[in-house]
């Protein structure tokens, strides 16, 4: 291969690397914990596109950038719908899974997810919790664990996101849609006006239990 050929490969490699870093920078997902399944697939495909184009002399750097731009538009569109639609979020990123509820291990769910005892014990240990201390454990969509110890009494569950009620989470705390709407009516807030609503439970320094709704409404437009 002539020196010109190596130089052109280097140019396309540099262009591809800069484009890849720019995409990571602009999407705000620079670490694995921030990435959705779509983001992970996107990174593999981007690598395949860049790798396939580098050694193909018939494809120019401009064409490479155009293909990367089109692919990124598709991925951004998928993530947009996943961010603002509960249905698309469950379809793309899946839902969280409750592994321990009120100190009871949900064995059917644990087996369904293929989680072995050693993996579960390790993840709890990372959170500073042992098996017998776990009161509530939830596997989040990003692969992380939310853990509440028996003595802590702390708990939080998202009930509304982007104006949509999460009925499964309501069942988790033993509440209904009717109860939620009544609570919001007292606060003079509508479900569709909420960015997020979170139910929290805690114990204060006097060992007294308290709970409530934390609301974040969408900003009002004039």
From TrEMBL:
<dbReference type="Pfam" id="PF20730">
    <property type="entry name" value="YetF_N"/>
</dbReference>
<keyword id="KW-1003">Cell membrane</keyword>
<feature type="transmembrane region" description="Helical">
    <location>
        <begin position="61"/>
        <end position="82"/>
    </location>
</feature>
<dbReference type="Pfam" id="PF04239">
    <property type="entry name" value="DUF421"/>
</dbReference>
<feature type="transmembrane region" description="Helical">
    <location>
        <begin position="6"/>
        <end position="24"/>
    </location>
</feature>
<keyword id="KW-0812">Transmembrane</keyword>
<keyword id="KW-0472">Membrane</keyword>
<dbReference type="InterPro" id="IPR048454">
    <property type="entry name" value="YetF_N"/>
</dbReference>
<keyword id="KW-1133">Transmembrane helix</keyword>
<feature type="domain" description="YetF C-terminal">
    <location>
        <begin position="86"/>
        <end position="199"/>
    </location>
</feature>
<comment type="similarity">
    <text>Belongs to the UPF0702 family.</text>
</comment>
<feature type="domain" description="YetF-like N-terminal transmembrane">
    <location>
        <begin position="7"/>
        <end position="80"/>
    </location>
</feature>
<dbReference type="InterPro" id="IPR023090">
    <property type="entry name" value="UPF0702_alpha/beta_dom_sf"/>
</dbReference>
<dbReference type="InterPro" id="IPR007353">
    <property type="entry name" value="DUF421"/>
</dbReference>
<protein>
    <submittedName>
        <fullName>DUF421 domain-containing protein</fullName>
    </submittedName>
</protein>
<feature type="transmembrane region" description="Helical">
    <location>
        <begin position="36"/>
        <end position="55"/>
    </location>
</feature>
